[in-house]
Amino acid sequence: MLDQLDNRILRYLQNDPESSVAKLAEKAATTPPVVSRRLAKLQETGYILGHELILDWSALGFEVQVSLRVTLDKTEPSAFDEFLKAARKIKEVLEIQTFLGLVDVRLSVVARDMEHYQQVYRDSILVLPHISDIEALMHISTIKLDRRLPI
After folding, report:
1. Are residues 13 and 73 part of one domain?
2. Residue 145 domain flag
3. Structural contact between residues 62 and 112, judged by C-beta atoms closer than 8 angstroms
4. What is the number of domains present in the chain?
5. Same domain, yes or no, for 73 and 99?
6. Residue 41: left (phi > 0), alpha (psi -120 to 50), or beta?
7. For the chain, which end, N or C, has fewer CB atoms within 10 Å of the first or last residue's CB respectively?
8. CATH at residue 32
């Protein structure tokens, strides 16, 4: 169970992931050794999963982002497993989410341009097993992107 100090440390770390232990300690009103021990415990217990580098896709030449909503043929018992196994192999698929409801899976796909996207769609997406329906949503802009939790 997290206490108030853990929550403060996590809140400040979310806002500035590159903060030093000393700076976190100052903001959280504690000492650097306490913050070091707490961070180690938070990582060990799975509250902190890791640190990630976020790349600017467009700066790296990926101008197209598409969200594909996929409905699978659920008459085949292994449809989900086979679809997910194959979808994981497509390097342009950055995220795979599963849902309950009309849509079974959402794939987040990036491509350099529309020609590249069409090639990925035709050669890799449409050949995935057990697709009964697929809808493409073209990404236009990101209005809000915040991975920080309200703690």
Report:
1. no
2. no
3. yes
4. 2
5. yes
6. alpha
7. N
8. 1.10.10.10
Give the DSSP letter of residue 100. S
**72 and 34, same domain (yes or no):** no
Long-range Cβ contact pairs of 76-81 (< 8 A, separation 24 or more): 76/130, 79/129, 79/130, 80/104, 80/105, 80/130
Does 53 reside within a domain?
A: no
What pLDDT, in 10s, does the model give residues 33-72?
A: 999 999 999 999 999 998 888 899 899 999 999 999 999 9
* Buried/exposed 86-104: b ≥16 CB within 10 Å, e otherwise: ebeebebbeeeeeeeeebb
Residues 64 and 111 grouped into a single domain: yes
- Which are the contacts of 149, defined by CB distance < 8 A and separation ≥ 6? 10, 14
Confidence band for 108, pLDDT divided at 50, 70 and 90:
very high
Can you read off the two tokens belonging to residue 117?
């996207």
Are both 16 and 75 inside the same structural domain?
no
| Token pair for 135 | 């809808």
pLDDT the model gives residue 1: 87
Cβ atoms 12, 27 nearer than 8 A: yes
Per-residue pLDDT tens for 126-142? Answer: 999 999 999 999 999 98
Residue 35 domain boundaries: 4-44
**Residue length of the chain:** 151
